[in-house]
Design goal:
283 residues, 0% strand
């Protein structure tokens, strides 16, 4: 069975490989800036994991503050990358509360309440992951809902794992630790973080391809000089409207036309109104 140190090293290795992959994608497609932001956020989280591994072996107050600061900063950068991808520009609504929480965490850790600092940091990370999941589900209306559902679900699962870490410390009343927290929630969080980091990396590639496809379609449908719709866009719009009108006319008939058709039917079924039948007999 793997010990806690092995889980931390596995998380650091997985994050390093994922960050290198994101940087390589950004070098090939510099316009995908959110990929660069994701790579930077994952790199900050890798630094947090490495510092946390050193903190488990040689704990110190200053190292504890660095560990907690890098954890909040890494998920803050990932949240900003999600906002950048979805076109949400209210960065201060996320940055300011996170910076306040980081300052409070640093103050409590400096006073010796490192356990309280861990609880505050875990609560901050849980809130950031919840914001990421909600934004992808609400703001991603033009994207594939299946991918957005998986992203929201993974963000929620990872946030719950961090919330459990803080809840265990809060229930036990461990306001002062002096060492790195080591319990079942921390081990579960390490496994969940490695799994979610790997899957979210693959989903980031999918989102990058979707964004490239949308941008390519927009470029082919607009004039490069004026930015207006070109002939291809008008032709596609015309045939799409024609197909829609043919489909509607094939399956929907006006009510008066159906009644007239039943009235003039020569045999079988309903024969129409009484005056019409009398006139028909006279003829």
């Amino acid at each position: 069975m793997l010990d806690f140190s092995s889980l931390l090293l596995a998380a650091a290795l997985s994050g390093t490989c994922l960050s290198i992959t994101m940087f390589a994608i950004w070098f090939t497609a510099p316009r995908a800036r959110f990929v660069l932001t994701v790579a930077c956020g994952i790199l900050v989280l890798v630094a947090h994991v490495v510092l946390f591994w050193h903190y488990t072996r040689d704990p110190s107050p200053w190292l504890c503050q660095l560990v907690l600061a890098f954890l909040s900063l890494g998920f803050l950068v990932l949240c900003l990358s999600a906002m950048q991808y979805l076109g949400v520009h209210d960065y201060e609504r996320v940055v300011l509360p996170t910076l306040v929480a980081m300052a409070v965490c640093a103050g409590t850790a400096y006073l010796g309440l490192d356990g309280a600092g861990f609880i505050i940091t875990y609560a901050t990370v849980t809130a950031l992951l919840a914001v990421i999941g909600v934004m992808f589900w609400i703001k991603g209306g033009g994207q594939d809902r299946r991918i957005l559902l998986v992203v929201s679900l993974l963000s929620g699962v990872c946030g719950v794992s961090f919330g459990l870490c803080g809840a265990v410390l809060l229930v036990k009343g461990q306001w002062v630790l002096g060492v790195a927290p080591d319990n079942w929630a921390e081990r579960l969080n390490s496994v969940v973080a490695v799994a979610c980091m790997t899957v979210l990396g693959a989903l980031t590639l999918s989102l990058h391809h979707l964004q490239a496809q949308i941008e390519l379609k927009a470029e082919t449908m607009t004039d490069p000089l004026t930015g207006l719709m070109n002939r291809r866009a008008f032709t596609s719009l015309y045939w799409r409207s024609r197909l829609r009108s043919v489909h509607v006319s094939r399956h929907v008939r006006p009510r008066p036309f159906q009644e007239d058709q039943r009235c003039v039917r020569p045999s079988g079924g309903r024969s129409g109104s009484v005056p019409f039948r009398r006139r028909h007999q006279e003829i």
